[in-house]
Amino acid sequence: MTRIACSTSVRSGSGLEEALAALSAAGFRYVDVLAIDGWAHVHPSALTGKASLREQIARTSELLERYELQPIAANSGVSPQLHDRSSGAIARRRAETEGLVHWMKELGIGFCAIQPRQPDPSRPWQEVMSDCVASLKEQVEIARAEGVTMALEFHVNSPFETMEQCLAFLERMPNMPIVYDPTHFVMQGVPLGETFSLMDRSVHVHLRDAAKGRMQTRFGTGEVDFGLVLGELRSRGYRGAFSIEYLDTAHYDVIEDAAKLFALIANEFPD
């Protein structure tokens, strides 16, 4: 059965308990937990000490059980920039990744997306990419040793933003799995069909509606043709899970749109 999770991003402005309570009340069964340092909901920098790690595992586990939710994925961002290869950043990244993977294993989460953080416009992009690749290889190896899969999500305002950058990365690191999220390309004005080649490397899918110049729109009002995307995924034999990733906003309750998108995905991927 296809697993369709909702990300805690729908309540990124609230704490973890509020996010999980809202998802449970909306009828979701599976959850994708944000673990992006400095934002929400679990901070990898708080997973480096043994006592703090145990506390975070116990708290997250208790909340998931209370709200009857099963975590199937995490969306991560450790505190150092991916392109920072200073000795201090390397040590922090390793410690936070190890803590994150341990937290995931204790919760039964086998998959984690990597948010590539911010770009470095002060240096040539090829140089930045080389440093990112070195960091990603270290993170992937830490996760692989513990039976956890990490995949890179291409993202606006990151070292991997444009299609040209993303395709160059795929050539440089051909064994790195990725997360397919058309939002970040649609908002740049990239035709949806040009993103489909990324599906063949994708082990997880993030979805929400978007339009040129807008990271997010109300469900069905943007330029993400979900029928086309889901049909293309199905024709390419996609068998992974989905995470609905609407972003919390004061303008409307995004959980309403998440529920509509859930119904559409479930109809297109019934088993």
From TrEMBL:
Nucleotidyltransferase keyword on record: no
InterPro entries to which the protein is assigned, alphabetical: IolE/XylAMocC-like, Xyl_isomerase-like_sf, Xyl_isomerase-like_TIM-brl
Source organism of this protein record: Cohnella zeiphila
Keyword set, alphabetical order: Isomerase
GO function term, MF aspect, one: isomerase activity
Presence of the UniProt keyword Isomerase in the record: yes
Protein name from the UniProt record: Sugar phosphate isomerase/epimerase
Pfam families, per database record: AP_endonuc_2 (PF01261)
Xylose isomerase-like TIM barrel domain sequence ranges: 20-249
